[in-house]
Amino acid sequence: MKNIAILGLGAMGSRMAHNFLKQGYNLNVWNRSPEKCKRLVKQGAIQHLTPKEAAKSADIVFAMLTDDDASRDVWLNEATGALSGLKKNAIAIECSTLSFAYCLELSSILKDKGIQFLDAPVIGSRPQAEACQLIHLVGGDKSTLDKSHEILSINSSAVHYIGKVGSGMSMKLAVNGLFGIQVAALSEVLGMLNQLGLDRDHAVNILNELPTTSPALKGIGLAIIANNYAPLFPIDLVEKDFSYLLRVAESKSAKTPVVSTVLDVYKTAQKSGFGQDNIAGLVQLYL
């Protein structure tokens, strides 16, 4: 399977595409803003004007998009969507972070057309994508994963099979929820310590020495010390993922009072003008 396509060349998709080219794959690309394809075309990619055209010659089609609405348009648009261009028995892989319900809907539509599907969202951001150190959380048929494992491994340090369709997406939402809750707690605690007269940076350094601080949260602490809120994981996307997480929890009558409360915190950050800042920028609500 040397012919692949990537739909969506944002911060993550463009880096994944670059890694595929380095490994010698025949790469078809599409992006809503065509100019983002230029660098990859210079490296050997073939640019297309629609997702449908990009998908036509591909054995595997990846999508890395912002949300449900973007994914629905890219895959299912009647005139330009990738679904109408996919070959029978092609494999469609969604690497975007989407809602659980939409993921199941997309899978069902593709299955009816004879298309194999994996939800394979990634853990990691731009640095991990550049270093081929992403982690895929995969839902779908195991035999489909077996066919795709080699290609998924190009951009990742690990490929975890979670279970049936939708399970990769639900696990990704859970991971982002857990991370977002930690960041909200850290931000709140630092604000309290600041009010008590403790230096912010000293407090972060102490917390980072303790076993209660996760490796990911240590990175957030270092970003806060550096006042570095460049959007690796923007608060706007954090709020979107929390909304999806709360939606699936409610659909299963799962109790998630902490998720609900923390979602409100991120919404407050958006209203305060911090939506384009990295998740670490949440601390600005408290300092």
TrEMBL record:
Protein keywords: NAD, Oxidoreductase
This protein's record includes keyword Oxidoreductase: yes
Statement: the UniProt record of this protein carries the keyword NAD: yes
A Pfam family of this chain: NAD_binding_11
EC number: 1.1.1.60
EC supergroup of this enzyme: oxidoreductase
Ranges where the 6-phosphogluconate dehydrogenase NADP-binding domain occurs: 3-163
GO molecular function: 2-hydroxy-3-oxopropionate reductase activity; NAD binding; NADP binding
Residues covered by the 3-hydroxyisobutyrate dehydrogenase-like NAD-binding domain: 166-286
PANTHER family in the record: CYTOKINE-LIKE NUCLEAR FACTOR N-PAC, OXIDOREDUCTASE GLYR1-RELATED
Name this polypeptide is given: 2-hydroxy-3-oxopropionate reductase
